[in-house]
Amino acid sequence: MASEPTPEGTPAPLLVLDDVHAGYGRAAMVLRGLTIEVPPGTVVCLVGPNGAGKSTVLKVASGLLKPRGGRVLVGGRDVTGQGPQQMLASGLAHVLQGHSVFREMTVAENVLLGAYTLRDKERIAERVEFVRNLFPVVGERWKQLAGLLSGGQQKQVEFARSLMVDPAVVLLDEPSMGLDPKTTATVFAQVARMRDAGTAVLLVEQNARRALETADLGCVLDLGRVHISGPAPQLLADPQLSELYLGGRPAEPSLSGEG
Ligand SMILES: Nc1ncnc2c1ncn2[C@@H]1O[C@H](COP(=O)(O)OP(=O)(O)O)[C@@H](O)[C@H]1O
Ligand SMILES: [Mg+2]
Predict the structure, then answer these.
(1) Is 149:107 a contact under the CB 8 Å cutoff?
(2) Can you tell me the distance from the alpha carbon of 167 to that of 198, in angstroms, rounded to the nearest whole number?
(3) What contacts 242, CB < 8 A, 6 or more positions away?
(4) Whether the CB of 256 sits within 6 Å of ligand 1
(5) In sequence order, which residues have a C-beta less than 8 Å from that of residue 22 and are 6 or more positions away?
(6) Residue owning the nearest CA to atom 18 of ligand 1
(7) Which of 170, 9, 164 is nearest to 74 (CA)?
(8) CB of 55 closer than 6 A to ligand 1?
(9) pLDDT for position 249
(10) Dist CA 212 CA 218 (whole Å)
(11) What is the mean pLDDT of residues 233-257?
(12) How far apart, in whole angstroms, are the C-alpha atoms of residue 51 and residue 231?
């Protein structure tokens, strides 16, 4: 999706959550004035402890949960209150927390589920080629049962499925959950590849340090709002932030090129 440059010359954000308030039933609000912007060509990472409301942010963005206040803008267009189907059509694809691969179906069948809103066969074939190139494992295992793949490979199948509609922004909910450190590194490398191939990413993670190492911009969610935000390397280098939110001191810069 093309975006108009703002007068200052910085590209306009693809997704804006503006002063969002949201919650469940009669319980206290989970999000209380949350604002996040996702510019084109970036991975924005939202970190925060378990229960802070990270998944709730993504549910508001993908239309699974209607906000009680504030606005959701996609490409400058107000889409507040739209449902999941309309949000997908507007360019927001959501990869849910946990596992959503159908193990008894082939990799191909799993990926093609992401194309159910597409009508044009040529367009579908183009997208299949695109995701098979971007995630080589998906291409190599195309005809196999998805249940035979490792956890990290199944995550790539989920990524491939979400990219079938060529979304402007993909919403990733804790893609590293349950994966070992080496597989986590591979999955984060694939997140960077998605960005480099033209899809902006809003990533939420409990695995804050590793996620910020992948991200361009970072935000810290605390008490229902974004508490601190900035370039990810800046957040990683901040000793106070490290102590409070990233589980200790900044690590030595990683020199390994694994993944
Ligand atoms: N479907 C739901 N119904 C009621 N409360 C919920 C629901 N989903 C999440 N919550 C509550 O909202 C808060 C934020 O949850 P969530 O967004 O899942 O946090 P995170 O993803 O950061 O772990 C938690 O207190 C959680 O118990
Ligand atoms: Mg969550």
Answers:
(1) yes
(2) 9
(3) 236, 248, 249, 250
(4) no
(5) 29, 30, 31, 56, 59, 60, 65, 66, 67, 68, 69
(6) 55
(7) 170
(8) yes
(9) 62
(10) 6
(11) 73
(12) 24
**Extended beta strands in 52-142, E state:** 69-74, 77-78, 92-95
- Other CB atoms within 10 Å distance of the CB of residue 203: 29
d(CA 29, CA 23): 4
pTM exceeds 0.85 = yes
Mean pLDDT, rounded, of the chain: 91
Measure Cα distances from 169 to 13, 26, 44 in Å: 10, 31, 10
Give 1-36 pLDDT, tens digit per residue: 444 555 566 678 999 999 999 999 999 999 999 999
Indicate which residue's Cα is closest to atom 26 of ligand 1. Answer: 51
pLDDT at 1: 45
Between helices 151-163 and 121-134, what is the axis angle to 10°? Answer: 140
Q: Is 26 in the pocket of ligand 1 (CB under 6 A)?
A: no
Q: Which of 4, 36, 6 is nearest to 19 (CA)?
A: 36
pLDDT of residue 251: 54
